[in-house]
Amino acid sequence: MEKILDTVKQPNDLKKLTFPQLETLAGELREEVLSVVSKNGGHLSSNLGVVELTLALCRSLDLPKDKLIWDVGHQSYVYKMLTGRRKELERLRHEGGACGFCAPWESEYDFTVSGHSSASLSAAIGAVMANELTGSGGRVCAVIGDGALTGGLAIEAIDHIGHLDKPLLIVLNDNEMSITKNVGGISRMLSKARSGMGYRKVKDKVELALKKLPGVYSATRFVKEHIKYAITTGGAMFESLGVTYLGPVNGHNIKAMEDMFKRALTMDEPVLVHVVTQKGRGYGYAEKAPEKYHGVGPFDVHSGVKECMEKTYSAVFGDTMCALAAEEPRLAVITPSMTLGSGLIGFSRKYKSRFFDVGIAEGHAVTFGAGLAAGGAIPVISVYSSFLQRAYDNVIHDLAIGGLHAVLAIDRAGLVPGDGATHQGVFDVAFLSAIPNVAVLAPSCLEELRKMLIYAVKEHKGPIAVRYPRGGEERSFDNGDFVLGKAKVLRVGMDVTIAAYGSMVSRAMDCADELEKRGIEAEVIDLRSVKPFDTATISKSSAKTGKLVFMEEVVRCGGIGEQLVTNLKLRGRDVKIKLISLPDGFIPHATMSELEADYGFTTRGLLRKIEEIL
Amino acid sequence: MEKILDTVKQPNDLKKLTFPQLETLAGELREEVLSVVSKNGGHLSSNLGVVELTLALCRSLDLPKDKLIWDVGHQSYVYKMLTGRRKELERLRHEGGACGFCAPWESEYDFTVSGHSSASLSAAIGAVMANELTGSGGRVCAVIGDGALTGGLAIEAIDHIGHLDKPLLIVLNDNEMSITKNVGGISRMLSKARSGMGYRKVKDKVELALKKLPGVYSATRFVKEHIKYAITTGGAMFESLGVTYLGPVNGHNIKAMEDMFKRALTMDEPVLVHVVTQKGRGYGYAEKAPEKYHGVGPFDVHSGVKECMEKTYSAVFGDTMCALAAEEPRLAVITPSMTLGSGLIGFSRKYKSRFFDVGIAEGHAVTFGAGLAAGGAIPVISVYSSFLQRAYDNVIHDLAIGGLHAVLAIDRAGLVPGDGATHQGVFDVAFLSAIPNVAVLAPSCLEELRKMLIYAVKEHKGPIAVRYPRGGEERSFDNGDFVLGKAKVLRVGMDVTIAAYGSMVSRAMDCADELEKRGIEAEVIDLRSVKPFDTATISKSSAKTGKLVFMEEVVRCGGIGEQLVTNLKLRGRDVKIKLISLPDGFIPHATMSELEADYGFTTRGLLRKIEEIL
Prior knowledge:
The structure is a homodimer. By secondary structure, chain A is of the alpha/beta class. Chain A is 43% helix and 15% strand. Chain A has 27 helices and 19 strands. A seven-stranded mixed beta sheet of chain A has the order 9-8-10-11-13-12-17, with helices on both faces. In chain A, strands 2-3-4-6-5 form a five-stranded parallel beta sheet, with helices on both faces. In chain A, helix 25 (560-570) links the parallel strand 18 and strand 19. The interface between A and B is large, with 133 and 133 residues.
């Protein structure tokens, strides 16, 4: 039998459907989301939560003339299905398949890139003003989660939206979570609002009572003027910033939402509609443990997600933090809403008073760490590489200038499979290297990470970053003690020097193994310390072999390769050099093996490049 | 006669003074602030505004055991005078004199670096938690301006502060301005609060009236619980985030503030005290035009600040924007609260509907620009180099990945006199070069800036940055038309190639003039386009001369020098190379001529380096 979903070619087609048909369609969409995600991996809970919301929005708006902007596009799978991308979703997060986030190059229905949280409101008010400047009509709606609201960027935008006072529909998708349980004052405020769904009735009652007291009601003008604060506790913040608050409304009742959205869209001002949804809705496993089904790998729908047995860098990070916390009472760990992904579940339970989930607020995570460090604690700030970009000035201004002793534990450094351009951790070496006073380390195996974290917490003075990849180790090395600025010759050879750091070291060793089979002896050097790095050891080795290959899994520009070439040149060293790195372009979503093939990071690909100077 | 100020060796000494003595002291402090700033230049209006506030805080706290954290330390001159730094202030902003911002290396009374806005609250809650972890006592107080509250970082911190619910005193120094007139919903909210200084009385009246209606008062529990929202309109946002709001209080009444601070410090929770101050207080010129006296050069106290007659890069930027706006209706200009400093006063008056001062919110400035661009407008985002660090991910994620056509007009690029480490514009070339899709231009004279802005707005597609220094041009050049990626040979010579960009080009020409006197013919190349840059022209020239000097006014790491050396090496070009750039360290405050002398950027200093390869 044909699915209703098959009849939906574009979002406006949804307007022809009856509410019972929409309920059926919601079921079909959930089934398809589950099928797509269980096959390809991806974001499950958030997409199951917004099925009805997406339908109500598509019916209330006139797409693509109106603009619908999803904050953190990982909740946009349903939207993609309704905007002509069902086929691409079959290969979600794979090369050539749909991107797991909003992507304007994919569809005219996607307005801006949205891989990082909290940016939708800024883009939305930009769209409103662009419509005004260009004279093109169309309304604008942004959907933002309660978790994303903890990001300062979103509040900066609300402040501006209140000031400009133009029509704009903001849908607050409140599922009481970022990725794990939400924290912070904003969260508490919303929870108050949720608990009082009957407000409006109470309001009427109070107003009536006050009217019977004309003396008070008129004399105290402010009561009249500001009664709405009392009746919309949850909306107080928005209202005080100049944004009208409506809600809360049940995010699984299409009709109720549609009524509210349509009303909001007729208002000549910015309006926030508070929608309450349930993450993981419709899939038992995900309803019970939505955070476990936030971002998942492929899994069996019937038995659910299996525990990952691989020992990851994240897990070693979490374990090492627990071990260090036991001996160092001043140690504190900070995460911007990445407790699970960063391997910190154990730490968060064992060291509650020293664990700080600050919400999606990378800037605050770093500057809060600076305050801890200035006060004599030892903060470890755990953050993904691509999200650290959001705290760049905090690292420079709040940590580095004062030379404060804080540790940046940078997860997801280098290539990251599946998520695409917004999540690649390929800029951190460039942007951190430029900052004075900041040391940067890169472990080549799990045991190295442990050693480096111990060094960073217990021995180092000043700001220090340890960057490590997603996943586990390919090989392990016995590098001996860690010394800042000292590289380690892992393998001795006379024919060519291959220097690398982090995840590239095991690839370098694989290449050396292959070269050996061909009778070529490669000397392999593990930098370990990326800033400062050990030019002397590399210089000495390459003077011996006469040929230097340098490999890194970041963009070339500003990377260690260029710095190394410059150092050697200024020392008057003249050796043949081959730099292997990522090109000057954004790296799209694909699996790890697809990425390795595309960028020549397979052993075969690397050997081909090495051969160029042999 | 001895001043009272002479008797104050440390802040606790203030506790011995009577209120009449404090009034006299306030006058002495104002006089000294005026004397220091008129002699050295610096921030005037904000310091004149916080004299009484500083006295009240120093008396309410036990410094340095308690921590007092100033958000944007440019309001800390009075505090510096009271914490043993009067002598250093005599040479404010000069080498060896006091820093114009808070600087922990200068005094134990300064807790963190504070050159950039909105960071104090994060540092403060960090200090609170550090006290808890280390067991050291002491209370914490942060002073933040209403302007700084528009920075998302501050709201991220308030969200976390509300969540942790620990004692912390936040003083909101509300002077109704950032640097120029404040904008945004937060500003509106505070102005409501200010206008209702008599709220408390009204509250009592209402509560009494409600009590006479027991049915309503008890039945509608929420009225009782949330009545405070109605009576503290201005505090609604803070209260809803879990921070208790007190005030507003007159910021020039020492006793009133002291009473309020002491009360707040006994409360076992985070408390925000709303203090209303007047910028420029006590100096007629500054009271009338506080924004004009925000940051000033040396001036005559009796006649006030004179109009700057020098034609600056900022002025050319503003003029060019006006000219472009006249022919391009889609052009819009955005500033994060830097209308005056960025040369945009004229534009802001002439093109009101296309001018957006978003408050101190650099992240939003860029992402709002992205929204404008995605909607078909042409945004020019005007921002100082060191503040663009705060929008790094916004450039990557919101502009560059989507390849949106937006112009970053980066003022204060390169060395910046007076302000010190926090304000040097020396990282932008490194952090922007690493980002794919972003073009970077650097004009070598005022006319070049005009040409480049026209190119960026009218011809270029995609994100593009134009970076230019503070102040005016040293020399001017006729470079002909601007072509992206093309360098210009400004002067032909056979003996040595000197390549440079931006402000270094005139220095390179000065060097060439000097060399000519010695019979050495230098070829001078102006890069113009920094990304992409023209390796071919430099390669060709240096192949001819055999010697290459490359000069840039940024940190070496990640700069163009390293990229150039690498490009030449990979092309197999072997020439003698000398890189001249800034070292890997933070650059302290000093005058421009002090900086040039210290970093070898005088003609003599540069020649000494050039001679090394001649």
